[in-house]
Amino acid sequence: MTGTHPNLYVPQRKQRQKKRNAEGQIIVEEITADSNPSKIIDDPQELDQFLQSSSFQSIMNWIESLSNSVKSTKNSSPIHVSSCVENILSILEQLDKWIIEIPALTQRSRFGNKAFVTFTEKVESNVGLIMKKVIGNDDVNKIKTDEDDRLEEELLKNTAQYFLHCFGDKQRIDYGSGHELNFVIWLFCLNQLNIVKSEDYPALVLRVFNRYLEIMRHLQLEYWLEPAGSHGVWGLDDYQFLPFLFGSAQLIDHKYIHPKSICNSEVIEGYAKDYMYLRCIEFINQVKNGSFFEHSPLLFDISGAKTWQKVNEGMIKMFKAEVLGKLPIMKHFFFGKYLPLRLMRDAEEEEEDHHHHHHERDEIHTGPCLPSSEEEEAHGETSKAKFRVQSCCVQRIPSSIAARALEEGQNKSNFGV
Fold first, then answer.
1. How far apart are the first and last CA of the chain?
2. Nearest Cα to 128, choosing from 300, 1, 311?
């Protein structure tokens, strides 16, 4: 990892140790409170074990707690904003400035812009300072205690991986709900460390997560990030999931805005700044061509629900199935001190390599390397195409943002963020 902070643990996929428990089952791999963050889920059986684990329940409890904290609450509602929340917002502001400082490269390809690699490397090289800033250790006038130093080390070792992987993949230049999950799990770790507390939950959603969403839209527009694992028109959204879950909670018991109101352009225009769900609809309409029911049929179907409470309950179920329950996403999820996991397998099953191969480190997620500048110059988009060897995880497609921008004859998008 270029420019990585020297104290940051960089995970590597380990050769699995075959231990047995009292019942004769093989302990395939175990992540405990003493383990470094690691990706350990490889197959459907292991995913099933995760879905029955305490870590799965911890994630769901966290998501539902955040959702409950913003029920019937607008983005602009007066809420408690702690110094730590202000520190996180300051970090996000700095990231937004870096996007402006690192403009997209001129390229003919409709796939992701390689300037995104420069942005991610900037984040990687500054991760130590970012983790310091979370707890105010970047302040030169602050008299640091032993506890401050311990927290800083803990943030680097056990939480930084989630932060580094929440903006997308720098080799594939893509982004999806798995990256979004990393961001809220980073916040979960801060909560486990008691850096953010329960009274911060509304601000974590309405201020921090909302600001993160706008940064991701900025990244998507600037660098044409490809949607990771998109289901096309049959997905909820090309990139995000949680703003629909949190956003539906915000709208519960609203007197005038109902689920079917998302089809009313005046409602979207008038209230998008106040509600995450409506802002998502506004952004989708900005970057996609055609009528809403054609490019977003699932969201259109959901608008037929009677109440926002029903929508919110459905989103929670869908999050379990479509995010935490999807192998292509959870293959790349980090388990560690705050989300431990033990994987078991019967001895006979361990002998069968039903997947026929194992992937080293991030091979599935990153795929083959991108072509060099010289290759792209010589062969144009076909140079990218020959590198689009499909993995067993996900099919790659260019973003709708890129498609629309190229239709309008632009080198890169100029949609407002």
1. 30
2. 1
Virtual CA dihedral for 92, 95, 96, 101, nearest 10 degrees?
A: 160
Q: What is the dihedral of CA 326, 327, 332, 338, to 10 degrees?
A: 70
* pTM score of the predicted model: 0.82
The answer to whether residues 356 and 192 touch, using CB atoms and an 8 Å cutoff, is: no
Tell me which residue of 360, 335, 329 sits closest to 44, measured CA to CA. 329
* Amino acid making up residue 270: G
**Along the 417 residues of the chain, how does pLDDT read in single tens digits?**
445 554 454 455 444 555 555 555 666 667 666 678 899 999 999 999 999 999 999 999 999 999 999 999 999 999 999 999 999 999 999 999 999 999 999 877 778 899 999 999 999 999 999 999 999 877 767 788 888 899 999 999 999 999 999 999 999 999 999 999 999 999 999 999 999 999 999 999 999 999 999 999 999 999 999 988 655 555 688 889 999 999 999 999 999 999 999 999 999 999 999 999 999 999 999 888 888 888 888 999 999 999 999 999 999 999 999 999 999 999 999 999 999 998 886 655 555 544 444 443 333 333 334 445 554 444 444 444 333 333 444 455 655 665 555 566 655 444 344
Beta bridge partners of 169: 174
Angle, helices 210-223 vs 276-287, to 10°: value is 10
User: Residue 347 has which token pair?
Assistant: 């001895």
What 3-state class would DSSP assign to 309?
helix
As to burial, measured by CB atoms within 10 angstroms (0-12 exposed, 13-18 middle, 19+ buried), residue 143 is exposed
Nearest-angstrom CA–CA distance, 256 and 275: 13
Give CA 91 to chain center in angstroms: 17
